[in-house]
Structure formats: structure tokens, C-alpha cells
Write a structure and sequence with these properties.
two-stranded antiparallel sheet, 14 strands
């Protein structure tokens, strides 16, 4: 085992501050029938902040204070020797990608959709048993852009350096700053400032992306070409079920309808066509359900009964159960109730998945069956991939989903809901070339598609900029790429988006 791949030994030998610990390997993959040769650089880069001495420091080490070791995996296309290096950098896009949580590593986007290797795990109803394996990803985005997968502090192999409290990174503002500062550092070290640049985030990673659109632009002067939002949540008021906040109940109705449709829980006329049913559910949510909830207890008995009947019709739940929830079926209750008579639970990340609880009479499930389905395959294949294919060794646990980041801090929005849609609106107004791609899964009960549509409809984006964002929809869940037809379509949609927004 070399000194390069054991940062803890390196610290002991030199007795100084932590050092970058990187390994590079060469590979090839076939994407769309074309062989792609590429370099993978993986490991940790030390993130530093200016010390109090700053510009008065006698040397670089004195002027900067190590704060964290950020783990990343970068994929860069092998340059055609007939193209000058400067031209290659100017024309070759670069995408920084991460997942959400908060507390999630980037493994899902990395080995699920964007990277040149992906997990073979099967899909809802067709899951493969262990042991698991990686296969070449014919749907990788590497043929369109270089890729850098980032694990925020306390996720993956990223850690605060010795002597630094990791809790300082576990909040909205510091997370944005640390990831943004890493992006600046990588872009500088690898001479990519003139490259077309993109962010790709999933789930809370879309929250981070919107926050970064402002931070990178205003703190570092880094203007982006585009942002890819996969399973988006920008306005947390749309997903937090709280007394006095009826918005989630409204925007979740179409996703409840999609889930009930998939499990054949709707009336016969609604089971004929998914898209027609979703259109009806959307109309009901906006034009009937929302005004009714606004009235609250002032609803007449007749109106209340009518709403309960229609809620039951579009959610697949019984009228009695709807009445018992006070016309407000909350998400986790829905996932427990929809298939209760079959002693099955319904997935939250992807409602196509079903699970088994010991107690089918309970109010809440034991686990999310869609998360349980993906955790094992992604964990096993990542550990194997790092050591056997990328030659990177680290004995720390790779924090796939770290609970150590909680409680996550939202001090910047105390007594209100986090809403980074406004940050994105401002960034798009300042950089009118910034384009946004939004991918939605119909069966996603974590970040429902109708909530995302609502968020963008409420952005008050200038009319001249409204064509700068594109929404796409897939018949799958939060991680729509586990469904191969959706993966194929997602790849095609993202590649077209990047091609249309590089401005070359």
C-alpha cells in the first residue's frame, strides 16, 4: 500500500498539515457505439481558508488554514492530439455533480446515471439478488461533458481535518460555501475557468445547486452555462407537512394519483391512461381542493363530503380514511395506507416499490422499500470499484448516507421555509445565458413533480427568461435512472440540454 493512498500515514511521516491524496488511472468505455478514452482522478483535496494573517503571510502554508479534506472522483476525456489544449478546455464542458440528503454522498448520480460505470440491480418487481456488480454505462454523460463527483464534508470519504469541528459544515450556508470553494479550487487547479460549466444535483443536491448558482456567481465571479436539477426541491414549504401549511397536501395529489394508478387502486376509468388521470388530478388539486382547504372549518358539510369523495377517487384511499385525516393525507401515512389490505407498504423515493412490515396495522412503515432496494447494490459496488478499478484505498467508512450531519442547520431561515428558488431567479436574471434542466419522476413521493412545477410558476422570473428552463418527466421515481427506459430518455434529454447551452 503506497503512501499516496494512505493519508493518515502521510500525516504521521511529515508531521505537518494534511496533504492532497490523489490517484489517477486510465480507462475506456463505449457510449452510443463510440469508444471513449478517459482519465479518472480520485481522492481527497485539502480545502483551506485564509488565515488571519492572509496576505501578510510569509508563505502559502502560513496564509491558509486547512479546514477539510474533500473527496471527489473526476472523469476527464482524453484529448484529441490534433486539438490544441486551450481549444479543448474552451470547448469541453465540465459538470460538478452531487446528491443531497442532507448527508448523502454522490454515489447515486455517480454509479446510477452520469458516470461510465453503473450498478446493475434490476428494477421494481425485478430486483437482482446479491452479490452485485458494476457494468459499463452506455447511458453515461461522459461523451458530452467531463464529470466531477463531490462528497460534501462528513459524506463519502470527506472529513473535517483534525482540530476542526465537523458540525460547522452541517448547515445550509456553510455547505454551500465549502462545496462552492471546492469547485473554485478544482477549476483553478485543473485550468478549467474557460470551460462551459454545469452543476448537476439530485434531491437536496438541487437545493445546493440553486444556492451555488448565487454563491459561485457573486463570491467567485463564476458564471455557469447550466444547472441540471434531478428530482428537485427548491421551496421547502412544498414538502414539509406542518399544521397551518396546507401547500404540501395540494401539490402531492397528482403523485398520490400516479402511485395509486401504478398499483391499480383507482376506479376503472382512471386506470385507462396515466397522463389523462394526472391531468384530472392536477385540475382537482388546484381548482377544487386548494380553495376547499383555504376555507378550512368554514366548509359546508356538503362541500366537505364532496372533497372527501374526490380525494378518495384520486388517491386510492377510502373515504372513511380521508375523513379521519381531516382531508389531509400526509405522505408517510399514505405510503402505509395505500396497500394496507395487501399487508404491503409503498415506496417514498419510488412508489413503484413495495415493502413488508411486521405490523400492517401501524400508522407508519418500518423502512422505505425503495431506499432499501438500492442501498445494498450501490454500497457494495462502490467499495469494490474504488479499490479494484480506481486503485484508491481508504480504510474509513464511506458514508453513503451519513446520519452524522444531523441536525442540519437552517439558521439563515429561522421561522420561515427555506426557498432557494429566489436565489436561482436572481442568478438567472444576472446571467441571462444560464439555462436550467429539471427532471421529474411521476412516482417520486419525496420531491413530487407538481410541487416543482408550482415552485417554478411562483418564481416571478421575467418573461424573457422563462424559456431558459426545461422540464422533463419520466415514468419512474426519485432516482428515475433505476428504470432503464427512463435512464435512456434522461441521458438523451441531458445531452441535448448540454449541447444547446454551451454557447459555442
Amino acid at each position: 500500500m503506497t503512501d499516496e493512498t494512505k493519508p493518515e500515514e502521510k500525516k504521521e511521516k511529515n508531521g505537518k498539515e494534511p496533504q492532497d491524496n490523489l490517484v489517477s488511472t486510465q480507462h475506456s468505455v463505449t457510449i452510443g457505439g463510440k469508444e471513449i478514452k478517459y482519465t479518472v482522478t480520485t481522492g481527497t483535496m485539502v480545502l483551506k481558508e485564509e488565515s488571519e494573517k492572509g496576505g501578510d503571510a510569509k508563505n502559502e502554508n502560513e496564509g491558509y488554514k486547512p479546514k477539510a479534506e474533500i473527496f471527489f472522483t473526476a472523469y476527464t476525456l482524453e484529448r484529441d492530439e490534433s486539438i490544441p489544449g486551450a481549444e479543448h478546455r474552451r470547448t469541453r464542458p465540465l459538470t460538478f455533480a452531487f446528491n443531497g440528503g442532507p448527508g448523502s454522498s454522490s454515489v447515486w448520480l455517480h454509479l446510477g446515471v452520469l458516470g461510465p460505470r453503473r450498478v446493475e440491480m434490476g428494477d421494481a418487481g425485478e430486483l437482482l439478488p446479491p452479490p452485485y456488480r458494476l457494468i459499463d454505462n452506455d447511458y453515461s454523460l461522459l461523451d458530452s461533458t467531463d464529470l466531477v463527483f463531490i462528497d460534501p464534508v462528513t459524506t463519502g470519504y470527506s472529513r473535517a481535518v483534525e482540530g476542526e469541528n465537523p458540525k460547522q459544515f452541517h448547515n445550509f450556508k456553510k455547505d454551500i460555501a465549502s462545496v462552492g470553494d471546492f469547485i473554485r479550487l478544482y477549476t483553478t487547479r485543473y485550468n478549467r475557468w474557460v470551460s462551459p460549466k454545469y452543476l448537476a444535483g439530485e434531491s437536496y443536491g438541487t437545493t445546493r445547486s440553486a444556492g451555488l448558482s448565487g454563491y459561485l456567481q457573486e463570491r467567485h465571479g463564476m458564471y455557469l452555462n447550466g444547472i441540471l436539477l434531478i428530482s428537485s426541491v427548491l421551496n421547502f414549504q412544498t414538502i414539509l407537512f406542518r399544521p397551518g401549511n396546507d401547500l404540501p397536501y395540494i401539490v402531492y395529489i397528482p403523485s398520490y394519483a400516479a402511485s395509486a394508478w401504478y398499483h391499480n387502486r383507482l376506479d376503472t376509468d382512471l386506470q385507462k391512461d396515466l397522463h389523462a388521470t394526472l391531468k384530472q388530478a392536477e385540475d382537482f388539486a388546484i381548482n377544487e381542493y386548494a380553495p376547499a382547504l383555504l376555507k378550512g372549518d368554514a366548509m359546508s358539510a356538503e362541500e366537505r363530503a364532496n372533497i372527501a369523495t374526490k380525494l378518495a377517487r384520486y388517491t386510492g384511499l377510502s373515504t372513511d380514511y380521508i375523513e379521519q385525516t381531516n382531508l389531509r393525507p400526509e405522505i408517510i401515512r399514505f405510503t402505509k395506507e395505500l396497500q394496507r389490505d395487501a399487508r404491503r407498504t409503498t415506496g417514498r423515493l419510488d412508489s413503484r416499490f413495495t415493502g413488508i412490515d411486521r405490523d400492517s396495522a401501524g400508522e407508519y412503515w418500518e423502512h422505505d422499500p425503495s431506499m432499501s432496494a438500492i442501498m445494498g447494490p450501490y454500497t457494495a459496488t462502490f467499495y469494490d470499484y474504488m479499490r479494484t478499478e480506481l486503485n484508491y484505498e481508504n480504510d474509513l467508512p464511506y458514508e453513503i448516507l451519513s446520519r452524522r450531519v444531523h441536525p442540519w442547520g437552517y439558521q439563515n431561515v429561522e421561522n420561515e421555509y427555506l426557498n432557494v428558488a429566489e436565489t436561482l431567479r436572481k442568478a438567472m436574471s444576472m446571467n441571462t445565458f444560464l439555462k436550467v434542466f429539471i427532471a421529474n419522476g411521476y412516482y417520486d413521493l419525496a420531491t413530487p413533480y407538481f410541487a416543482t412545477q408550482y415552485t417554478f410558476n411562483q418564481m416571478e422570473l421575467d418573461e424573457s427568461l422563462r424559456d431558459n428552463y426545461t422540464m422533463t418527466f419520466y415514468e419512474a421515481g426519485h432516482m428515475m435512472y433505476v428504470h432503464i427506459p427512463s435512464l435512456a430518455q434522461l441521458k438523451d434529454d441531458m445531452a441535448k440540454f448540454i449541447e444547446s447551452s454551451t454557447n459555442l
